[in-house]
Amino acid sequence: MHQLGTLEDLPESYRNELTEQNLVPLWPNMRAVLPPKVPSRKTRTLRWGYEVVRPLLLQAGELTPMEKAERRVLVLANPGHGLNNMQATPSIYMGLQLILPGETAPNHRHTPNAVRIIVEGEGAYTTVDGEPCRMERGDLILTPSGKWHEHQHEGDGPIVWLDILDLPLIYQLEGSWAMEGRPQQTTLSRDKSFADYSAAGVVPNLNFQRGTADAPMLRYPWSKTRSCLVEMAEHYQNGLLQVSYVNPETGASLFPSIGFGALMLRPGETVTLPKRTTACVFHAVEGAGQLNVDGGEPLAWNDKDTLSAPGYSDITLSNGSADQPAFMITADEAPLHRYLGIY
Ligand SMILES: [Fe+2]
């Protein structure tokens, strides 16, 4: 591919006149925005080790009372995107949030879609549009765009969860905003939507009415996901063992922007993921192992660590244990790539 003209090739007076008229010549920048064959990617392969983040998060609990933080979160920011832009990948925001015993996070709602994955602690629940959802290790709890949500913690120890939002995307679309609300009236019994959809393939049909809510199931308990993967392992001896989190009424991804999945690495297993366009994040729910991207330096990960990898790359995951399975929850931008026709 031949070299295109640069800005410096142009007379300064001409450049100044373009700037004055809010005009930019394309050719000096064209290769940067349309590189040959492979896109430029800012997402770096990275690990946020829980052993490092946890003490800093607990320190935030001492340094900043809840009323001064509202959401006491340390954002897992990918430096490739610029730390202050708070992006783990182009469209995904991730943060570890801490709530101390007796604290509450006030009721609010916002345009970005959010999922939280419980990392540590017991006794907390999130109330989503009147439904209290229990929060246990590895559970996935949804707060889709516009739904009211607030958090209570009645347990003894700290509770930590991983928030995953499409905030960078919605922010870029100039569509990101939030509002506060009065505490919710709990109108539904605890985990009602999970009870409705607790058996895969069976959906509620009360008075011959199928559910029509845009997010009919709000809590996806880890125990169910884990036992599904373990049972599947009986039938699939090799190859990537993975499930997707979907809307149980429609089979669609949880959000139009972010797709969620869970995978199991068999004891001693190393798997290479099919090469894909989308960046991806991984949260280790159980076990330890290594992540290798494009044959680079392998990153060792442990239980509760969170990792990122860019798209258009060869990703290899390995389980460090020869006798125990390892489990990870994944999030990627595949639904958006599919919608745009670039997947
Ligand atoms: Fe929120």
Q: Which secondary-structure class do the elements indicate?
A: alpha+beta
End-to-end gap: 25 Å
Report the uncertain regions: none
CATH topology title of the largest domain: Jelly Rolls
Give the number of helices.
8
Which ligands occur here? Answer: fe (ii) ion
DSSP, total strands: 23
Structure write-up:
- By secondary structure, the chain is an alpha+beta fold.
- The protein is 18% helix and 31% strand.
- The protein has 2 domains: 46-208, Jelly Rolls (Sandwich), CATH 2.60.120; 220-340, Jelly Rolls (Sandwich), CATH 2.60.120.
- The protein has helices spanning 12-20, 30-33, 50-63, 66-69, 167-172, 192-196, 222-235, 334-340; strands at 46-48, 73-75, 93-99, 104-110, 114-120, 124-128, 131-134, 140-143, 149-153, 159-165, 178-180, 205-206, 209-210, 219-220, 241-245, 259-265, 270-272, 280-286, 289-293, 299-301, 306-309, 315-319, 326-332.
- The strands form 5 sheets. It has a 6-stranded antiparallel β-sheet with strand order 1-21-18-23-16-15. A 6-stranded antiparallel β-sheet has the order 2-3-10-5-8-14. The protein has a 5-stranded antiparallel β-sheet with strand order 7-6-9-4-11, with no helix packed on it.
- The radius of gyration is 22 Å and the shape is globular.
- The chain starts with 11 loop residues before the first helix and ends with a helix.
- This is Cupin.
- Keywords: Dioxygenase, Oxidoreductase.
